[in-house]
C-alpha cells in the first residue's frame, strides 16, 4: 500500500505503537478497587455522625426532602476524605444543554494571616455554586448579558474523585438552574420527571395492597463507539471538526462478512478496554459487557442497571473516561452516530425499567404473565405512554448526527412502535377480548449433540428493528444516539409514564369508589388500554416498506428527520404534559425546541464549512495534480509519436469539473444561510440546501479518491482508518 507522505507517516507511526504499561497492579482485583474513588454510602457511614448519615440515606433511598442542617457535616467529611485521596480542588459538575459535562474548579486551600493555608469547605459551598450561565445554550430563557446561574448539590448522585497526574479533584454532581429557577441542564428535568413518575407508580402499588417504598426508574445504556488510531484522526480535519468523515470512498471490504461482530477483540483494543474498566470501577460505574460490534473498528460496552439519575451521570463520565484513556493508548474514541459512511452507525440503547426495594422490578412478568396482574398493569402503562407520546419520544433523540442513523436499516425506524414478543403479544390479544387465561411457556432447544445439555428457550424472540422492545424484564429504547446524554430520553420516558400511571391509578380508584371489585376493575382497564392503544404494538420487520404503509394506516407518526420531530416538544399536548407533572414550564419546553433547532443548524454548518475547506484545499489540489500528471504523460506520448489513451484524463477532468461545480454551489448555499429570518428558517435551509450541496461535493470527491493515484491522495482512507489499529 503506497501513500502520500502525510498518510505514509501516519501508517508508520501506527506500526510503531508501543502499548502503555498494564493498568492493573499485580494481585489487584476489580473488587478491590470498585468504588474506591466514590463518596459512597459505606464511606458516609464511617465518616458521618449517625443522625446525619440516616438523614442523607433517607433522601437517597426514600426520596425524602434533604435536611439543610446536615450540609456542614457532610461537607466537612467529604473534604477530609477528598484531601486524603490527594484532592486539591473541588468542582460542581453539571450537565448543560450542550449535551456535554461542565465543571468549575475551586481550591480547598485559602491563605490565612500567618502565611499558611487552611483547607475550607463549608456546607453552603457544597450545596450551592455559581458558575457563569451566560454562554451556555438557554433557548431564550435568559438574556446573554445576564450571567448568574446556580448549581445545586444532587445528594442522590454520589461525589467522586477525578484523578489527574497533576492533582485530584473532588467532583460533586449538581443541577444547573437560572436565577429564576428555570432548568438550564439535563439533570433537573430528569429528577422532576422521576419524582412525578414515582408518585403515580406508588398510587398503583397501593391499590394492589402494598405499602410501597420509593419507586425509581432504572436505566442501562449500551454504549457503541469506534476506535481509530490517533495519527489518522489528526490527519482528518473532518473528524477533528465534526466527529464524522465528510469524505471517503467505500473500502473493498466493509462489514458484509459479519466477521467483526463478536469476534476476537484486538490486543490493543483489549488493553484499552481493561484500562477503561479499571477507571470505571474506581468511579463505581458497573461496567459489565464488552465486545466487538458490527462494523470494523466498532465496539460496545454495557453497564449494569442503575437508578436513572445516577446512570445518566455515569454515562457522561464514561464517555469522558473513554476519550481520555483512548488517547493514552494512541487512539481516538468516536461517539458520533455515523462517523463512517456505508458501515454500521453507533447507538446508545437505553434499557428501561422501574421498581423499588419492596416489590423489586415492576416489569418482571414471571413464568405466567397472564396471572401477574400487577405486571400487566405496568406493561400496559408503557403501551399507553408510547402510543400517546411516540412523537415526543422521537423528539427526545432528534439531532443532526442521529438523523444519519435512524431508519437506515441498522437502527430502529423513525416510527416509534413497541415489540412485545410472542408471549406478551398473546396475553394482550386475549385481554383485548376478555380475561387472559394462558401464557406461552418456555421451550427447550434440541441441538442434536448428546454431549451438550438441553438448553431452555425464551417464550419469545427479540426484534432488532423495534425502537421500543420488551426484552424479558425491561424495555429497550433503541433510538438514542451514541453521542447524546441518556438524561433526555429518560426524562421523556419518566414523563409519559407519569401520565400513564396517573391515568391508570385514577381509573382504578374511581371504579373502586363506585363499588367495582378490584380484580374486575383491573380486567376492564387492561381491556380498555390494549383496545385503545394496541395499535402501537408491532412484532414484525420495522425496516420493511410494508411497515411504513401499515404504520400510516394505524395513525403512527413517521417523523423522519430532526426538523419533523422537534415540533413535538411544543405541541399543546406535550406542553400540558410537562406543566401538569412539573417537568418543564412552557418557556422551558420552548427553550428545548429553540436549542434543538440551533444545535441542528450549527452542526450542519460546521460540516458544510469543513466540506468546503477540505474540498478546496486538499481534495481538489490532489485531483489537479493527478490531472497534470496525466496530461504531461499524454503530451509526452504524442511527442514520441505514440497513440495516447485519453479516457482516464477525460474521466478525471470530468470529475474535477463536477467537484468545482459542487464546491461553488456549496459556497453559495453557505452564504445564503446568513439571510435566514429565524432559527427555523435557518435550520430548514441547512436541511434543504447545505446537506444536498455537501452530498454533491462528497460524491465527486469520493469518485476522485477511487481514481487518483494513491500516492497523491491526502486523506487517510477508510480501509486504513477502519483496519489499521
UniProtKB/TrEMBL annotation:
Family: Belongs to the glutamine synthetase family.
Name of the protein this chain belongs to: Glutamine synthetase type III
Gene Ontology terms: biological process: glutamine biosynthetic process
GO molecular function: glutamine synthetase activity
UniProt-listed PROSITE patterns: GLNA_ATP, GS_BETA_GRASP, GS_CATALYTIC
Domain GS catalytic span(s) in chain numbering: 186-619
Domain (GS beta-grasp) ranges: 88-181
Record InterPro entries: Gln-synt_C, Gln_synt_N, Gln_synth/guanido_kin_cat_dom, Gln_synth_cat_dom, Gln_synth_gly_rich_site, GS_Type-3, GSIII_N
Amino acid at each position: 500500500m503506497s501513500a502520500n507522505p502525510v498518510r505514509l507517516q501516519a501508517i508508520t507511526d501506527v506500526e510503531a505503537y508501543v502499548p502503555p504499561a498494564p493498568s492493573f497492579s499485580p494481585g489487584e482485583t476489580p473488587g478491590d478497587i470498585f468504588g474506591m474513588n466514590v463518596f459512597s454510602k459505606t464511606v458516609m457511614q464511617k465518616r458521618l455522625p449517625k443522625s446525619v448519615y440516616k438523614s442523607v440515606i433517607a433522601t437517597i433511598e426514600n426520596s425524602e426532602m434533604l435536611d439543610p442542617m446536615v450540609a456542614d457535616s457532610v461537607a466537612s467529611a467529604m473534604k477530609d476524605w477528598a484531601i486524603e485521596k490527594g484532592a486539591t480542588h473541588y468542582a460542581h459538575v453539571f450537565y448543560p444543554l450542550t449535551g456535554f459535562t461542565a465543571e468549575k474548579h475551586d481550591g480547598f486551600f485559602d491563605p490565612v494571616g500567618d502565611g499558611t493555608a487552611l483547607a475550607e469547605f463549608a456546607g453552603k459551598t457544597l450545596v450551592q455554586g455559581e458558575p457563569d450561565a451566560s454562554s451556555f445554550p438557554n433557548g431564550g430563557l435568559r438574556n446573554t448579558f445576564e450571567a448568574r446561574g446556580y448549581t445545586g448539590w444532587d445528594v442522590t448522585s454520589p461525589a467522586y474523585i477525578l484523578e489527574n497526574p497533576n492533582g485530584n479533584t473532588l467532583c460533586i454532581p449538581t443541577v444547573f438552574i437560572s436565577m429564576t429557577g428555570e432548568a438550564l441542564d439535563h439533570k433537573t428535568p430528569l429528577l422532576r420527571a422521576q419524582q412525578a413518575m414515582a408518585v403515580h407508580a406508588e398510587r398503583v402499588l397501593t391499590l394492589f395492597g402494598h405499602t410501597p417504598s420509593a419507586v425509581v426508574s432504572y436505566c442501562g445504556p449500551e454504549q457503541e463507539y469506534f476506535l481509530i488510531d490517533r495519527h489518522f484522526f489528526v490527519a482528518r480535519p473532518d473528524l477533528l471538526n465534526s466527529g464524522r468523515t465528510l469524505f471517503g470512498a467505500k473500502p473493498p471490504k466493509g462489514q458484509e462478512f459479519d466477521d467483526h461482530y463478536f469476534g476476537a477483540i484486538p490486543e490493543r483494543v483489549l488493553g484499552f478496554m481493561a484500562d477503561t474498566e479499571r477507571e470505571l470501577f474506581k468511579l463505581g460505574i458497573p461496567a459489565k459487557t464488552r465486545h466487538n460490534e458490527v462494523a470494523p473498528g466498532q465496539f460496545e460496552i454495557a453497564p449494569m442497571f442503575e437508578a436513572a439519575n445516577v446512570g445518566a451521570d455515569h454515562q457522561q463520565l464514561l464517555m469522558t473516561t473513554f476519550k481520555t484513556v483512548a488517547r493514552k493508548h494512541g487512539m481516538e474514541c468516536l461517539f458520533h452516530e455515523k462517523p463512517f459512511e456505508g458501515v454500521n452507525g453507533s447507538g446508545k440503547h437505553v434499557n428501561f425499567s422501574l421498581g423499588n426495594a419492596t416489590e423489586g422490578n415492576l416489569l418482571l412478568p414471571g413464568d405466567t404473565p397472564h396471572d401477574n396482574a400487577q405486571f400487566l398493569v405496568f406493561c400496559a402503562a408503557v403501551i399507553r405512554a408510547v402510543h400517546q407520546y411516540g412523537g415526543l419520544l422521537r423528539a427526545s433523540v432528534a439531532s443532526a448526527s442521529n438523523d444519519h442513523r435512524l431508519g437506515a436499516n441498522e437502527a430502529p425506524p423513525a416510527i416509534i412502535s413497541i415489540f412485545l414478543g410472542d408471549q406478551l403479544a398473546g396475553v394482550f390479544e386475549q385481554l383485548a377480548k376478555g380475561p387472559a387465561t394462558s401464557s406461552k411457556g418456555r421451550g427447550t432447544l434440541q441441538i442434536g449433540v448428546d454431549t451438550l445439555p438441553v438448553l431452555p428457550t425464551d417464550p419469545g424472540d427479540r426484534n432488532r428493528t423495534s425502537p421500543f422492545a420488551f426484552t424479558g424484564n425491561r424495555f429497550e429504547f433503541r433510538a438514542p444516539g451514541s453521542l447524546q446524554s441518556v438524561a433526555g430520553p429518560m426524562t421523556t420516558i419518566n414523563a409519559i409514564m407519569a401520565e400513564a400511571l396517573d391515568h391508570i391509578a385514577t381509573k382504578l380508584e374511581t371504579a373502586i369508589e363506585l363499588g367495582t371489585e378490584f380484580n374486575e376493575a383491573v380486567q376492564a382497564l387492561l381491556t380498555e388500554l390494549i383496545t385503545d392503544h394496541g395499535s402501537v404494538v408491532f412484532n414484525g420487520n420495522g425496516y420493511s416498506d410494508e411497515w411504513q404503509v401499515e404504520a400510516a394506516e394505524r395513525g403512527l407518526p413517521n417523523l423522519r428527520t430532526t426538523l419533523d420531530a422537534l415540533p413535538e416538544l411544543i405541541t399543546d399536548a406535550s406542553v400540558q404534559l410537562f406543566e401538569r407533572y412539573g417537568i418543564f414550564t412552557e418557556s422551558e419546553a420552548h427553550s428545548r425546541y429553540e436549542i434543538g433547532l440551533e444545535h441542528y443548524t450549527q452542526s450542519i454548518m460546521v460540516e458544510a464549512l469543513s466540506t468546503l475547506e477540505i474540498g478546496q484545499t486538499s481534495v481538489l489540489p490532489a485531483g489537479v495534480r493527478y490531472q497534470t500528471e496525466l496530461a504531461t504523460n499524454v503530451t509526452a506520448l504524442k511527442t514520441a509519436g505514440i497513440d495516447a489513451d485519453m479516457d482516464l484524463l477525460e474521466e478525471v477532468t470530468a470529475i474535477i469539473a463536477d467537484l468545482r461545480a459542487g464546491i461553488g454551489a456549496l459556497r453559495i448555499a453557505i452564504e445564503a444561510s446568513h439571510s435566514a429570518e429565524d432559527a427555523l428558517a435557518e435550520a430548514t435551509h441547512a436541511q434543504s440546501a447545505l446537506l444536498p450541496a455537501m452530498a454533491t461535493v462528497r460524491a465527486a470527491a469520493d469518485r476522485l479518491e477511487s481514481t487518483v493515484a494513491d500516492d497523491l491522495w491526502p486523506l487517510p482512507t477508510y480501509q486504513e482508518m477502519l483496519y489499521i489499529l
